[in-house]
Design brief:
Radius of gyration: 19 Å
Largest sheet: 7 strands, parallel
Distance between the termini: 28 Å
Shape: globular
CATH topology of one domain: Rossmann fold
CATH superfamily of one domain: NAD(P)-binding Rossmann-like Domain
Structural class: alpha/beta
Number of helices: 11
Bound molecules: uridine-diphosphate-N-acetylglucosamine
Number of strands: 13
CATH architecture of one domain: 3-Layer(aba) Sandwich
Strand order of the largest sheet: 3-2-1-4-5-6-11
Amino acid sequence: MGKKILVTGATGYIGSHTVVELQQSGYQVIAVDDLSNSTEKIMDLVSKISGRRPFFEKLDLSDEPAIRAFFAEHSDISGVIHFAAFKAVGESVEFPLKYYRNNLFGLINLLNCMQEHHIGHLVFSSSCTVYGEPDKLPVNEKAPVKKALSPYGNTKQISEEIIEDTCGVSDLKAISLRYFNPIGAHESGLIGELPIGVPNNLVPFITQTAIGKRSKLKVFGQDYNTPDGTCIRDYIHVTDLAKAHVVAVKRMLENQGESRYEIFNLGTGKGYSVLETIKAFEKVSKVKLNYEITERRPGDVPKVWADTTYANLKLGWKAEKGLEEMMASAWKWEKNLASGILEQI
Ligand code: UD1
């Protein structure tokens, strides 16, 4: 049996895809989630893909007695991938304390327990949001961290600092992975993004509009300084992203890191506008999307895409899937959801 990896936030979008990739690479997965934004049924679907059911426990990391009890039972963990966090930018502006409490207390409790049980490897789920509006594009890991535009973004920045400071004074080794825009779904069509309520992010909004759950997509602004006037993002397939986590864990377990704390951008290195994204969706789905141009969304960065040189070179990892493949997989997942895939299990 392979080494045991704890995945927090394991029933979430990126967490579930990473559990599959870990299992397929021979690791044993211990999966936890507080199920505040997901369902345990995801573990059934994960098991269908990998053929193995990961151990799962419902756990709120900000509940200190609960996390202590959990680690007392599972002290033979070799490494942790920490996804568990709230991630809705708008909600974080409205309820900052909810975000600081959940995202920061959860991390601090986790790090305390890891120290007590001598678990020395952590992969942290960070975001390109830490760069704000970058001065130079593509943006590399040396670019300055700008003042966060939301409490959500701030929790990512503070979390990175907490982890870096802890690495400096303990046995902890950690890697922060700064994601650009993860989209798409597993090729099996069995797992994907599962937004509760109205989606905030572009691609679930596109697929929900195409399937008829939403009447119209709003394109937030066409007056940006970009070729077609809409914002540019670096969209990365969630499976490519998940694979990078497996590589990061392996890098630490095999002692290949160059320092105790490392940071890598995870993107494709290519930027696409909102309109290009819509066009790619229409091409692969053959559905004409109902959309209109509206006002800008406050806080949106006009353009950002990654310099992935460092991740490509040091991790030996590269995103492989292109935009059309990403959109096709997101569409397959939306259609599966509509056909009741979650109710059937
Ligand atoms: C942002 C953060 C990201 C964070 C994520 C969490 C940045 C650069 N990125 O992603 O770190 O993890 O939120 O939710 O700060 N759009 C529309 N109509 C819609 C939805 C989106 O036009 O209904 C446009 C947005 O204006 C944007 C693009 O689509 O230009 C992507 O938006 P979205 O999917 O929400 O991601 P980000 O805001 O880039």
